Amino acid sequence: MISARVEDAATSLPAVPAYLYDLPALDEHVASVRRALGAVELYYAVKANPDAELLRVLAGHVDGFEVSSGGEHAHVTSLFPGMPVALGGPGKTDAELRLPHHRLHVESPNELRRLLATGLEADVLLRLNPDLSVEGAALTMSGPFGMDEEGVAECLPLFGERVRLRGLHAHLASGLDADELLRLAGILLGGAYDEVNLGGGMAVSYAAPETRFGWEAYGAGLAALGQGRRLRIEPGRALTVYCGFYVTRVVDVKRVRGEAYAIVLGGTHHLRTPATKGHDQPFTMLPTGSGPGVAGEPLTFVGQLCTPKDVFARNIVTTARVGDTVVFEMAGAYAWNISHHDFLMHPKPAFHYLRS
To answer: Catalytic: which of 192, 306, 317, 345?
Structure first.
């Protein structure tokens, strides 16, 4: 369910499709996460959503930003000069290795050698890709990400006064609950590193939007495991996903071979998440229409794209009329910024911000 202020804003937008961000809700949520974490450092993974207005809210609560490209680095440092930045990502260019940073997440022995060849100073975390069983993950970060124990061992003799080893970085998976993340943290913290970045991956449920990650249990668990170590996490989706909404309107309702469809303006080229993750995007229907419709039977919500993959949600029992407003929820992360905007060259959505 959406809040009254989001509903009022959605029905008064001058044009749709549009993105609507609830900044006070984001501020409240991130503040609660910050309180739950105690002494654990909180960085925001900018890849989840680099919208400048969201970053300005986040900057009041986080200890820094994690970026994964020169473009993200330029964006963040222009908005927040002096804010700590951790630079990660596989396949860094020589130019990216030269960028100023608080921490550099090195992904391979060769990358470390290239860093040393710059002659610059750097504080490094080695990204480990450990051979661990991960339970209940929506996505595991295996394969080319980071390095195995042999790669880490190859790196260790290379450090010196200019390029300093500060600790370990490990982002293992996405979609994990607090208990599983704490189990994995317990294993990773069994090593000799004084500083450990445990990454993100906190569970977000699109099927049950009211369900939230157990931040208080996670913060308490990390406090017990830390034992004086410097711990850092870098969530993305779990911080911003709930503050974003993709607002659109039903343009047609029809049946094809017995199946009912509601066609909305826009599509998954604006909100790619349901197509890539294969889930039903949660939504709220607002009865602003007076045209023909379907009531009380399964409806599949699709966009305007010329592909059968342009699906937001399948077989949802609801009522929809032409002209009704559809507010797709949980669109604050990996939504607009990860979508293929120019497919069919439709108009791009506007962006609106609730500030009070």
So the answer is: 306
